[in-house]
Specification:
- The chain is α/β, with parallel strands linked by helices.
- Helix content is 39%, strand content 14%.
- Strands 1-9-8-5-4-2-3 form a seven-stranded mixed β-sheet, with helices on both faces. Strands 7-6-12 form a three-stranded antiparallel β-sheet, with no helix packed on it.
- α2 packs parallel to α9.
- The longest helix is centred in the last third of the chain and has 19 residues.
- The model has no long low-confidence stretch (mean pLDDT 96).
Length: 375
């Protein structure tokens, strides 16, 4: 079975991990700082905080934003559930806004309509690697004195009007899961240009421990003294995995370029299929295509999916609308709230997309897809 996504590991990655294993550090050491510096540079900001997963990155970002019980977070339903769940875990009410029918990204007009006096954060998701409409969302968050969070789990390496994803929002989160654009096995990061938000993120990912204020309170204590002023968790990404991430980051441009080649080949070969929509990006966006979300007739999606699997093509569907999960249904959320996102989901199939796909693999996917759609 040809998978729909997989990691790209080479000898340089193995050497980087081996070197880290042979060093004096396994957890937090020099490789963490090196990786965070490289991630921040790639994002075009001053601060990067590495964490143990993309989910952890979201949790840390919402905590840094000061989300508390009673606050509202506006986000998209067309995402993995973690985008909403991590804010809900901090007590936020999740307000789902509908998506743009072309890109699957958060619709700024739906966001504007959803803002209330309790809204604190707007969290957009770069679906498939396409950057959110940051200028429009920024306009909304600026007018209402809100924070903009960009869930960029799909989009490290993407740009919008030449600006890298990571520099477009107040807080941006990355995921480094194996199927993503680069990997640390499990891992993620929060990036920001704001020093105060970064400091809060660092504190939350390290149990809430602080040293400076502790020494000010008790100057007679020694350098070992540290205190918890607000609860946090252990989300520290170890040196060994950061070494892998730094090595991967050096090849990110190659990964992005190959994904673009595969996307172009799919577009050319599948764009003429009746009832099928190929993924698009708005003008000015240069996505690092994490997914290839093909949309097929909703009434035939299951049969097309099954046909592709039977032909050895490991397709996937991304994603069940977040509020369809029973945990949200139990809170009173109902199907039909975001009809555009639900229709997008009913038609979506993710074709294989990863840099190690060979040209013959791509042709195999194309042929199988044409057979499946033809029925």
């Amino acid at each position: 079975m040809l998978p729909y996504g997989r990691q790209s590991i080479d000898a340089s990655d193995i050497a980087a991990v081996t070197d880290a294993l042979n060093s004096d550090w396994l957890t937090t050491g020099p490789e963490v700082e090196r990786f965070e510096t490289a991630v921040a540079a790639r994002a075009g900001v001053d601060h990067a905080v590495s964490v143990t997963s993309g989910t952890a990155a979201l949790h840390v970002a919402y905590a840094a934003a000061g989300i508390e019980p009673g606050d509202e977070v506006i986000t998209t339903p067309l995402t993995f559930v973690a985008t909403a769940a991590t804010a809900a875990l901090l007590g936020a009410k999740i307000v789902f806004a509908d998506v743009d029918p072309a890109t699957g990204n958060l619709d700024p007009s739906a966001v504007e309509a959803a803002v209330t006096e309790r809204t604190r954060v707007v969290a957009g998701v770069d679906y498939a690697g396409v950057p959110v409409d940051a200028p429009a969302l920024r306009g909304i968050t600026t007018r209402h004195d809100l924070l903009l969070l960009e869930d960029a789990a799909h989009s490290i390496g993407s740009t919008l009007d030449g600006a890298p994803v990571g520099s477009l929002a107040d807080l941006t989160t990355y995921s480094f899961f194996p199927t993503k654009n680069l990997t640390t096995t499990e891992g993620g990061a929060v990036v920001t240009a704001d020093a105060e938000l970064a400091a809060r993120a660092v504190s939350f990912k390290n149990h809430g421990l602080v040293r400076d204020r502790a020494m000010q309170r008790y100057p007679d204590e020694g350098p070992w003294h540290q205190e918890v002023h607000a609860f946090g968790l252990n989300y520290r990404l170890p040196d060994v995995l950061c070494a892998l991430g730094t090595s991967q980051l050096e090849r990110l441009d190659q990964f992005v370029a190959r994904r673009a080649e595969i996307k172009a080949a799919y577009d050319e070969a599948l764009g003429d299929l009746e009832g099928v929509d190929i993924p698009v990006a708005p003008q000015g966006a240069a996505p690092a295509w994490h997914l290839y979300p093909l949309r097929v007739p909703a009434e035939r999606r299951r049969s097309i999916f099954d046909s592709l699997r039977e032909q050895g093509i490991g397709v996937q569907v991304n994603y069940i609308p977040a509020y369809w999960h029973p945990v949200f249904e139990d809170l009173g959320y109902q199907r039909g709230m975001c009809p555009v996102a639900e229709e997008y989901y009913r038609r979506e199939i993710s074709l294989p997309m990863f840099p190690a796909l060979t040209d013959s693999d791509v042709e195999r996917v194309i042929e199988a897809t044409r057979v499946a759609v033809a029925g």
